[in-house]
Write a structure and sequence with these properties.
The chain is an alpha/beta fold. It has 18 helices and eleven strands. It is globular.
């Protein structure tokens, strides 16, 4: 991993920066997880990801410490293991315990590839809002319209328009307006450029190929983009916000984004900067099942924030993969397979009442509750959301 390379002098150039492969992609016959592709034949093996990415599971003691320090209950997604892995979260809690002002800042982002966010996009933002409220800290949100122009068949104008539309969805979640900075790369990247070029000089072409799978047929913009996504990890990229050049940073994100920040963490000490800390979520499954994540490019795999109540009901009833029995008799006899049942998995995200969720787990898992009933419960929650 990138972290282990720091102690290997043969893995750095004469300039003290990254060289050689940092194997960030986990792939094989059963699953592929990269920043752009998530495919798993039998569902994502998160234990395998933790081992291959070199992160750590979030232990119960760390959740208890977070509650003790903030004086607030941990988010249900922490307790349910939806946010399950981390890098240096203990360092962030140490900084908070020392009562810095601010003790750290949050950084997350969105690649605007469609007119509206879908439910899967909400996961890091909802959790980030919880962190901002619990720790009372600033937040920066990077809108990577440049990335989407480089990767997708869209115009610069459309990428920028998607940024503005997606930003409205993010603002609607209710972040602290005085402590939240949302920026378009097209607009702001010049302010980060000194950091970007320093980072870029530390990432060779061979590293980009090994980590991100780039090839000679990819445009050069893709090779340079990791430095742009890395830059907000460092407080010196925001001199108009932070007086401190070395303020700790915590990045909530889905675990498929970890490769970017493993490279960032490798580069940081070579530039005299702090490694960003990360807290990883599991993937929000597509309507068709857990072998992939929800995609903005597939309207039948996703529910968008712009979908009407009728559209939400239709999509859940028509496309949500069921782990229930093929017949009522079979379902009553054997119960539902909750591990593959999409309506139940979605309730684990959006039904925050632990007692009610456990009741549904027992009733549906035993076959006493039918698939139509659990879908009706989910539809009601999502329509309200």
């Amino acid at each position: 991993t990138a972290d282990t390379m720091e102690s290997n002098p043969e893995a750095s150039t004469s300039a003290g920066c990254v060289d050689g492969g940092v194997e960030a992609e986990t792939s094989g016959s059963d699953q592929v997880v990269t920043p752009w592709t998530v495919e798993a034949k039998d569902g994502v093996d998160y234990d395998k990801l933790v081992r291959q990415f070199g992160s750590q599971r979030i232990p119960e003691e760390m959740i208890e410490r977070l509650e003790r320090l903030t004086g607030k209950p941990a988010h249900p997604w922490l307790k349910r293991g939806i946010f399950f892995s981390h890098r240096d979260l203990g360092m962030i809690l140490d900084s908070y315990e020392k009562h810095g002002t601010p003790p750290f800042y949050l950084y997350t982002g969105r690649g605007p590839s469609s007119e509206a966010l879908h439910l899967g996009h909400l996961i890091p933002f909802i959790f980030t809002k919880y962190l901002q409220e619990a720790f009372d800290v600033p937040l920066v949100v990077q809108m990577t319209d440049d990335e989407k122009f480089l990767w997708k068949d869209i115009s610069v104008e459309d990428a920028y328009r998607f940024t503005r539309e997606n930003a409205k969805d993010i603002i609607a979640l209710g972040f602290d307006l005085e402590k939240t900075f949302i920026f378009s790369d097209f607009d702001y990247v010049g302010h980060m450029y000194r950091n970007i070029v320093q980072i870029a000089r530390c990432i060779t072409g061979s590293t980009s190929r090994a980590v991100f799978g780039f090839s000679d047929s990819d445009n050069v913009g893709k090779f340079s983009f990791p430095a742009i996504q890395a830059a907000p990890s460092f407080s010196s990229s925001f001199p108009h916000i932070f007086r401190q050049n070395k303020l700790p940073c915590l990045i909530p994100c889905a675990i498929d984004q970890d490769p970017y920040f493993r490279v960032t963490r490798d580069v940081a000490p070579r530039l005299g900067l702090l490694k960003p800390a990360l807290i990883h979520s599991k993937f929000f499954p597509a309507l068709q099942g857990q072998n992939t994540k929800m995609s903005a490019s597939s309207t039948t795999s996703a529910i968008y924030l712009t979908d009407t109540a009728k559209e939400i009901k239709t999509k859940i009833n028509k496309y949500a993969f069921s782990g229930g029995g093929a017949t009522i008799e079979e379902h009553r006899a054997n119960g539902a397979n909750l591990d593959v049942d999409v309506p139940f998995q979605w309730l684990r995200f959006f039904l925050l009442d632990d007692v009610k969720l456990e009741h549904i787990r027992q009733e549906y898992g035993s076959g006493r509750m039918l698939t139509g009933e659990i879908k009706k419960e989910l539809i009601s929650i999502l329509q309200h959301l």
